[in-house]
Amino acid sequence: MYPTPGQQIELARAFGCARVVFNDGLRLRRSAWEAGEKYISDGELSRCLITEAKLTPERAWLAEVSAVVLQQALADLNTAYRNFFDSLSGKRKGRKAAPPRFRSRKDNRQAIRFTRNARFKILDNGRLRLPKIGDLHVRWSRTLPCDPSSVAIIKDTAGRYFASFVVQATDEALPPVASEVGIDLGLTHFAVLCDGTKVAAPQFLRRAARKLKRLQQALSRKQRGSQNRKKAVVKVAKAHARVADTRRDWQHKLSTAIIRENQAVYVEDLSVAGLGRTRLAKSVHDAGWAGFTTMLEYKAARYGRTFARVDRFFPSTRMCSDCGRINEKMVLDVRAWDCSCGSHHDRDVNAAKNIRAAGQADLNDRGAHVRPGLVPAKRREAVTHPDAACSTRSVEGISALQGGEDVKGTGAPPPPPARRRSP
């Protein structure tokens, strides 16, 4: 969006009022918790901080913006508390959610939200009409499939304005194809496919490092609190935004091409957060693996494709894709290796082939290492206590991939039965 100077002032007023209501609600609930009082309900919070606050001289200026903006600010606070409580109780999976924090007026990124109750409207000339703000000029990236239920107005750190709509869309599945692909993500090559295709890592952050260094040095010389420092902060933010936008655009194009050309996509479940704490942290964050795999996942669900993640402990690099033999650990400098069966492997291509095989085995219920679940172990398994719990499918899959079963048509005989202890 491209608001006029007057509209920018109105948007800044709406951002500030929403931030104040959010902080007032957080402060009120924290004080009630510290005093040992009961949790303040959502309705009580709305009545105290919006309806009654507008009648006081200290908060009379809240009436200058749409009431829906203020109500949605409290809705965001309620969502933050709900995520925090669900994370504590274990109902919410994934990383632990922190308690809500106060919003800062010094943060350049601000956002507000309008729902249908605000009666926002998209005009015939393409402008977006918002209550108490006016008609904003919008450069549309696509045509909306239906009437939106809400719109979020976002101002990013680079000072740009965006409108994000919530719509109900139905995507048609792509026509089925026969190919399936396994992808090995890396740093030398961003992605290596099982057919031998290698996608070079663009390294957007590395390419812009010289310009970013110069802008950061100029920022460090500015006096804190001065207007020149604020301008320098915006320049640095714009440079980083250009890097992020370029990376996101490139990943969108690559992920869309992979989803269109393959019926099933298998990737390795990498621990990006752990790798981000190593000496390769800058290169890992520059690659953006997590964002790329997320794109593959939701695009596969949207277009009727199959997507699966292979367990991160699966030895895709050390396993021979021809005979299934697992070799010793290899350092990163080893880019090619020879197996005792006589096969010569490119490190990354071999890993991609194993990832595809493991993903296919899991989907066909052949016991591969793809996110194994905990199930009771069978009593006939060797060296397994009857009361222990382990992944039966994982154990059988490891045996098969090591050559214990003739799953690849190699003709290898099964291993001799292991000894068992008498009960």
Question: Can you characterise this structure?
Answer:
The chain is α+β, with helices and mostly antiparallel strands. 39% of the residues lie in helices and 14% in strands. It has helices at 5-34, 42-51, 67-89, 204-207, 209-220, 227-261, 272-275, 281-287, 289-302, 347-363, 392-401, and strands at residues 110-115, 121-122, 128-130, 134-136, 150-155, 161-166, 180-185, 189-193, 198-200, 264-268, 306-310, 336-338, 344-346, 375-376, 389-390.
List the helices and strands and how they pair.
Layout: H1 5-34, H2 42-51, H3 67-89, E1 110-115, E2 121-122, E3 128-130, E4 134-136, E5 150-155, E6 161-166, E7 180-185, E8 189-193, E9 198-200, H4 204-207, H5 209-220, H6 227-261, E10 264-268, H7 272-275, H8 281-287, H9 289-302, E11 306-310, E12 336-338, E13 344-346, H10 347-363, E14 375-376, E15 389-390, H11 392-401
Parallel strand pairs: 7-10, 10-11
Antiparallel strand pairs: 1-5, 2-3, 3-4, 5-6, 7-8, 8-9, 12-13, 14-15
Helix pairs in contact: 1-3, 2-3, 5-6, 6-9
